[in-house]
Amino acid sequence: MHRTNWTQTALVALLLLLLAVTVSQAAGLELQNLQENCPLRMQDATAIPAQVTVADFVLEVGIDDSPTIGDWVKTRLQVDYGFGHGLQASVGRRTVSSDTDETGNGDIYLAALQEVYKGPRDSAAVNLEVDLPTGQDYARWDRSVPGYPNPVPPIALKIDPRDQSVDFRLGAVYTRVLDDKPLTRLHAQASYSFLDSAQGTRSRGRWFLSAGADRQVTSDTLAMVNFLFEEKPWRWGDDSAILQLGLRHQVNSRLLCGVGYSMAFGWEEADYAATVSAEYGF
Over the stretch 78-88, which tens digit does the pLDDT of each residue have? Predict the structure, then answer.
């Protein structure tokens, strides 16, 4: 499908979700209701309540000493809506600012989470994400000449890491309460991405696994730790292993803020990264 058609599809989906927002009811946010990337790549197995809307904003800055990767800044703006019966739907947009690879800059995605089990101490959910190729579909390698910066000046090359196919991510989330006072929980997540847009030597499928925990340190602050594994994006190279630490703070009944730090034991994107997030309920 041509890019223009994908853009139209994404805009229709966004308008439908905004229509749902107009009938949403006011409700306070829950400190323990974790949304992925706010601020860590960790979420719990609970959907937001029915007829509640949450707007999420995430800013992530990555630092890498490699001349072929360099530093980057990523943002994510997402709107979540609770339909009731344990169903949550989301629509969002990503941006990427980098000297090298800005593939996906401007992409719009659709996501859903459905609770499948809710017990007194544990819960489980399944989730689905659909990535629409509405953004940039090429990478710019400005520092790919051997010996840069001396003696050869840099040249700019464009490569096509993907086509206009749609990518899917299917996963499952599990949460278990370990202790009530203070509230301490364990979270596990597994997903597989079907990357039909991948070109050349890029992988057409990637596993993602994470295990983490959160602990309520005060009435309005949550401490978080997460360890994640993700398969490499290319058919060569190493897989990613990342340790994440974060804090999540409830400013008031409608506003949640978070800060996170990611340290790489092996990561194709950065040596380390810092994340700030904000969630607003209305």
Answer: 999 999 999 99
